[in-house]
Every structure is written in C-alpha cells, then in structure tokens.
Amino acid sequence: MVRGTCEDQPRCLARAHQDSTAHQAVSRSRGRRRKYVEPAEGARTTSHGTSGTAWAAIVLAGGTGRRLGGVDKPGLRVGDRTLLDRALSAVSGAEPVVVVGPFRPGLTGVVQTREEPPGAGPLAALVAGLAHVPPTVREVAVFAADLVAVAPSTVERLRGALRDETDADGAVLVDEHAAVQWLIGVWRTDALRAALPDRTAGHSLRAALGRITRVDVPAWPGEALDVDTPEDLARVT
C-alpha cells in the first residue's frame, strides 16, 4: 500500500477534501475505459434500493506483523486508537461487521471468525468472513485492519461510485501511484461470492478480486496509508 509522510492524517485529509471539488476514477469494463466523476459534496442520495440489507463489512485482522517483530499489528496504537479501531470506525454503518483473525475477548458488536487454517492468508480470510454475510446483503466492504486514515467518508465514496457505475461490481481505492488497494473496497455481494474459488490454496486475493469489473476511486492524500514496517509506524506515531 501507499507510503505517506503526513504527520497529521486527519488534518491532511480535511485539507485535501477542501481543496478538491471532484475526484475522477477509471473503470475498465470489457476493454472500454469510462471516467467516473464524483458528484459534489451533498449531491448524493442515501437511497440504496428497496429490498435487502444495504451493506456489510469484512475486516481482515489476521496480520502477524512479521516485519514489525511479530506484534499484533491490528492492535497497534496510532494516536488514541488502535488500527483495528480505525477500520471498525470506518465501517461502523455496516450490518453485520465481520472481523477475521485471532479471537479478541474485548471486541463487541461484531462477528468474529477465523480463516482455515489460521494464517492461510487474506483470500482464505475473505472466504471465512463472507460465510457470515447473509444472502440479503447487497454490498460488502472489505478492509484491512492496518490502515491509518480510512474513515466513514472512504466507504461513502466507494459505495457512491459503485452505485453510480451500474455495470461495475466493485469499487476500490487507487493511490497516487495508480496502485489498486484491494483491501479498501466495496463489492456487490453476488459478484464477490462468484469470484472466490472453492479452495483458496494456490490462489491469490488479487487474482480473485481482479476478475470482478470495478471502478477505481482515487484516494485522498494519505488515505491509503498502512503500517507494515517500523518506518511506517514511526511516520504516524
């Protein structure tokens, strides 16, 4: 994921939001290129149809933090909150919220599950999480639990892009280097289920999600920042 140098992530995001009047994203569908232009703030309706639960969320929280000395990466504190708390805050409007990873006794208000076998990787974790999403749910947000600056506005923009691009089945952030952030995305549930393999061994998350037609939403400065190394952690603490 993107590396950032902003010392005050919320302030940087607020400044970027004020300075920007529109964000563009490119979706590739059957060889065509289409531009998605985000509507002006306040222009969107909150209606998402008349049947089924609007959206669920899966937070992948099984990272071992090997490059950080084996620490519980989602449990790392940045400011006054853990990285997992930040991810959960971003998806707070979802029902249900499924957290995939080691059991956390103090974690309430979510469904907790584990990939099989434990440590099998993000694709296995996504499959395990999706098993707890009811069939009536139309959209699923899929987020990593090591993200510093994601917020409810991240989900709103992704869901808005997916709603506006009716022939796309997913919406993901892309960073300033045009790198797709596969674990900051929203997907139509049926398309997500269809894209995942029955057996995850030998398959990658990127390959599975890459089969889905998507719209790419540019990240605000620092929005895709994650923590993988001690240097990453030093930048944000």
TrEMBL record:
Family matches, as Pfam families: NTP_transf_3
Gene Ontology MF terms: GTP binding; metal ion binding; nucleotidyltransferase activity
Domain of life: Bacteria
Domain MobA-like NTP transferase: 57-208
InterPro entries: MobA-like_NTP_Trfase, Molybde_CF_guanTrfase, Nucleotide-diphossugar_trans
An annotated GO BP: Mo-molybdopterin cofactor biosynthetic process
Keyword Hydrolase included in the entry's annotation: no
UniProt entry keywords in alphabetical sequence: Cytoplasm, GTP-binding, Magnesium, Metal-binding, Molybdenum cofactor biosynthesis, Nucleotide-binding, Nucleotidyltransferase, Transferase
Residues spanning the membrane: none
Position of the signal peptide: none
Keyword flag DNA repair: no
Renumbered residue ranges of the record's region Disordered: 15-49
Protein name: Molybdenum cofactor guanylyltransferase
